[in-house]
Sequence to fold (225 residues):
Amino acid sequence: MSARILVVDDEPQFLRALATNLRGAGYDVETATTAAEALSAAGLRPPDAVVLDLLLPDGTGTEICRELRTWSEAPIVVVSALGDEPEKIAALDAGADDYVTKPFAIGELLARLRAALRRAGPTGEPVVEVGPVRIDLDKQSVTVDGARVHLTPYEYRILRLLVINAGKLLTHKAILREVWGPAYGAESNYLHVYVSQLRRKLEPDPSRPRYLLTEPGAGYRLVGS
Fold:
């Protein structure tokens, strides 16, 4: 079954060309030209990924990212003529997975979309228990002592990566590159903030972690006890 891609852009010519190329690559494509249309389409027919422009007649792509991330884990690739660093950071912080600046080669966008879909992971993944923490990788749900815990998209992606590599040391660089992409490979302080948040939500005593362990100067590993 083809992955469903929601493409959101208010430029008719660009939208048609992009939809045609995505269909030619084998994707099932739905389009929207406004923020309202995009959120409605995503709610009625949840996409496997979203290709999203930043500037729309009734809102911004950053606002759509933020709204989608309250209920959807679908990868979001932002495409925009706005190449300023603050715009990129705002979109990524709002939940976007990647950012491509217009104009771009369609091959680059397709490669980034494939990578985003791969990172989202296939269904049919196992349920893993680490102490009182239960991680259902198929349903993307996390509970502690049976109580549902809300994780942000990035917190979940870090946890999932540690879960599927349970017991293994993952370096700061490896986690950053896998979760955020190559541009974040040296931002270990950035990662530390998210790991601290995970510990507050999952560990019995966050100041003395039992499951999400730090390997000083190297990285993190997830252990069962």
About this structure: The helical segments are 12-24, 35-44, 61-68, 85-93, 106-120, 153-164, 172-179, 188-202. The chain is about 40% helix and 25% strand.
